[in-house]
Amino acid sequence: MTDAGSTLPKPSLVAVVAALAAIMVIGYFGLFMGQSFFIDGDCESLASFVEHNVPSSGWRTDMGVGLSSFMGDPGAGALWAPLGLITKLFGGSPLVFPVSVFALMLIAATAVHWLLRRVIPDPDQGWWMVPVAAMIVFSPLQHEFFFQRHWITLSAGAPLAAWLVVRYLERSALRDLLALGFLSALVFGFGSFTALMHLGAATIPLLIAHTLYFRRPVGGSLGRFVLVWGGACVIMLGLLAWTLYPMAIEQLDVSYARDPVRSWPLFSQNNLLWVAIYLSKFIHVGWLPEAAWGYDLSNLDPVGWENVAPMFPLVLAVMMFRRANGFWEFAAKWVVVGLWVWHLGYFFAPGLLVGMIQHVINAYPLAKFHCFIQVFELVLIASFLLRLRRGESLRNPGAGDWVRRILALTLLGFYGGLAVATILVMVSPDVAKAVVASVIQTIFPIVRHAKLLVMTGAQIDLLARVWTPLFVMFYVAGAGWALLFLLPVRLEAMARRSLLGVAGLILATNLLMSWTVYPLEDSVRVWDEAARIHPEVVAAIKPWERMAAASAGQPDLSTPEKWLAFHQSQEAFRVGYRSPPAIDLSYRKNLTQKNTFDFQIDLVNASSDRKITSTRALANDPPMPPHALLDIAAVQWVYSPRPLPPNDTLDLVMQTKALYLYRYRQGWPYAYLADGVEVIGKAEDILGKPFGPAYVSAADRAAIPGTVTKQASASLALHHFDWGGYSFDYSSPAASLLVVADAWHPRWKASLNATDVPVVKVNGIFKAAVLPAGQGRVVFTYDAVGYKNGVFISLAAGLIWLSLFFWSRRREPDRKAVIAAP
Question: pTM here?
Fold first, then answer.
């Protein structure tokens, strides 16, 4: 029977892109309904990172105690920097960053469609592949895509890299190696090293599948695989020299520490309930949104990233028991199952797998292959649909058919039960509470009744606010797919009649999932809410004043009522908390100057019994004020999600439901003229020292001529402040030392009335300008001229790449790699 979709003309690339864009606009309907589109915690921070990187000139004063942006994420630091410029030109429109993410996701969907057209043996090349490809956007990874560029670039790079690697294994063409190198540069540049590392590792199952399917010698296939990726990395290094060269110079200048340094137990310690919850992720796509995770429900972890669509586990249950139709169907099974096995190994033995690798490469652990997995899950879905159109039955012989039936019954009960629960909670939450209470009283000992009843009652109230008729539609759709696989005659007939219709129904289910389980973020950001309620307080915070998060300690959860009050107070405490309107000492960073990294760690460890090994610990569990680190780092404001214990150094100035803001009265000034110079040995020797003098090492003291004292008539006023530099109006009848609580770096320069003056390291990690007597304007600038050589290396590498690519096209005729059964 002819597919209704095949009567349409074969789609061109332009038509495919237009159709995918239209689907994405429909899918992101929240953009047109007042939602704050992509403004989620990490995404909001990343957007500000990118926007401020343009005026930074290579230095980010607003992060921690100062950080060179050249050692940050190259995607945010270089290729994405134009987005900050565009944002500035368009008056700071919040849509600039989301639109760029939208464009990358459109590229990812187009790349998946490109792969499907080449590996699925459909002579019609019909429109039905378009909704299949669009599912990569509206998958359970939607939240990750919103704020993690490297996962988007991994989804975009995965189909192209897979095709190029397999082609090179087949014919060893220089053109494929060059293309893979260019693709690697894009994935690294627009994404991150993490994305490139995952991309290379995820193609290993492809190598195994290719070797097994064609029965090739292992040594020959492995040699070609190493050669193509080794050559691609060399090309990537040349093309991205404009970002990688500055990073290398930075490493030589000051050396950098990666944070966090993760420590993995050899084997995980998980109870049977948590193991069962984790294993359930392999058969569902998620069942509750983050907004409904309150009151300890997050312990159930209702997220499922392993499947691209609710019906995929059923597709896999059918396809695993069938002989593959060609290499790509065979390879898709290997990739999905092989990387699933890796995820299981990571769960049960993280130290044995990921931990050992991370001791060699301290990067993000090889733990998230979901993007690559989902690309090949779509290949299996497309192969499955094509089999149905050709008249194949869903029924497998023997045990395979029982697997399909049992899984279909399980999912029917899972999604059907959720649909019933949703309707009950929406219609009558009191009845739902009574039902749950009777179950609790039957199962649990009476000593736990009180807390459990309060907890479940509060959870049901929260679900009543979150669950909507859209949830019912999604759960019913999930149950409907399970029913179709349980009674397959109807699904087989639907596929023979219109493959485009079936693919559209699968996509529609994914859209319902994205609108319910993974919705767009519409929460009000914490600091925006504070600015609305207390505009005068937030406006009084100057951008050069350093702020620090403070740990509020352990809450009092001694009674069910206190427990409930605590969790309810945290309900709105989600978005934007980590983006205060000034310098944030507690900013989470992956790479930190080693001297600032060591100083902060040593200061905390030397001033208390608490021992930490990473600055991430300072962000997640910051020190309680008063604290020497807060003093020396010129912290002026302290913020917390809950009230802090009263002490003489804190004045409460603002309170909202999710934020307590205090004035910290013990912090040293951000900039001041030092009243003398004192030599110290180790950086932590500054502990207990009074404010006033500048504390320097013996080597730095030699660079400060004569005696430095602060004269009574001396004056200092901040003239201009920006992320990459600042200036002061200065006057003093004697030589002075202008101390700034911004980290020292050898590339910082200072001038007085356009005449260079020395910059030295003081107070452990900060900087100071040595000024002569006189008056005028002191200007601090970060000298990034030495980084420019990377641009010329990239230009030269680009010319060489183009020459080789065009030469290879003439030397190597365009032979398509036709991969057939052996």
Answer: 0.88
